[in-house]
Design a protein that fits this description.
This protein is an alpha+beta fold and 285 residues long. It has one domain. The chain is 13% helix and 27% strand. The chain contains three helices and 15 strands. The strands form two sheets. Strands 3, 5, 7, 8, 9, 10, 13 and 15 form an eight-stranded antiparallel sheet that branches. The chain has a seven-stranded mixed sheet with strand order 1-2-4-6-14-11-12, with helices on one face. It is globular. The relative contact order is 0.24.
Length: 285
């Protein structure tokens, strides 16, 4: 069941199509989530990455995970895993990037539903550090020591973000209905808002269809709604889901929607960030 604080957040999203980033983002996070508290923990998952990397927790999270991740930049490249609760409008935050860095959504999986359901809007999305260095390009397969903690976080996500009623309007991480191939324009999948955006962007209701992805729904630059800038929708090709950062601030990864209290399910997303150009991913087998 959503709280008055959560409903206030949804009203802001419906009115503006964006939330402010930085301190305002964390003010929203600590007002919405149960047992809200902001606690910073050092790197607890990857032995091969700098111990000064950290997570920011709001509420309860599995070991090694938080709502936010702070990159200390000691490593040339990092690999993060995200579990994005479709009912959590705030998604996750990544800080520590600088202009010239590259970010890539290397894979995204999962199914969420977007109407007539009750997920858990008071459970925070998760982000954790899988590993660092040259093996980042290999994905989680390059960091077997992190697998048990990632698996534990996925079990946590399945329990906390699960659907409670019949599933309707099902969407994969790229906003496609897995049943009939419909390319959803107003909800489903994720959006990556880069630091220069100033905060995460959102869709709109039927009175704000100008905030929907343009027809026919392919999530290309050309079809992006005109109100968003410095943000991208991941696609299945990791190379086309690679962007250069050109501003200071935080990266936000959020579910694409405007109303969240009837959403359920989650997406499992891997994100690579590098100080230089990310090499091409290995071929799909």
């Amino acid at each position: 069941m959503s709280t008055p604080q959560f409903q206030d957040l949804q009203k802001k999203i419906r009115l503006n199509g964006q939330l402010s980033g930085g301190p305002a983002y964390w003010d929203s996070a600590t007002s919405v989530f149960q047992h809200a508290r902001l606690v910073r923990h050092g790197n607890a998952m990857s032995a091969v990455a700098s111990s000064q990397n950290a997570t920011e927790e709001v509420g309860d999270h599995p070991v090694g995970f938080g709502k936010g991740f702070i990159w200390d930049r000691a490593d040339e490249a990092i690999l993060l895993v995200l579990f994005i609760n479709a009912a959590d409008p705030l998604g996750i935050s990544i800080s520590g990037t600088q202009p010239g860095d590259y970010i890539r959504v290397s894979s995204a999986a999962g199914i969420a539903s977007f109407t007539e359901d009750e997920g858990n809007p008071t459970a925070s999305s998760l982000v954790g550090l899988v590993g660092a260095g040259a093996k980042v390009i290999l994905g989680i397969g390059g960091f077997p020591e992190a697998v048990p903690l990632v698996d534990a976080a996925e079990s946590f996500a399945k329990d906390q973000f699960k659907a409670t009623h019949a599933k309707h309007m099902r969407r994969d991480a790229f906003g496609v209905d897995p049943g009939d191939g419909l390319k959803a324009r107003a909800e489903g999948g994720i959006l990556v808002s880069l630091p220069q955006s100033g905060g995460p962007w959102y869709s709109g209701d039927s009175d704000h269809q100008e905030r929907w992805i343009k027809k026919p729904g392919d999530r290309t630059i050309e079809n992006a709604p005109p109100h968003i800038s410095f943000a991208f929708f991941p696609v299945r090709d990791p190379v086309q889901s690679t962007w250069q950062i050109s501003g200071n601030g935080e990266v936000y990864v959020t579910p694409w929607d405007w109303r969240f209290d009837d959403n359920a399910g989650f997406y499992k997303v891997f994100v690579q960030i590098s100080k230089g150009v990310l090499p091409s991913p290995p071929p799909i087998q």
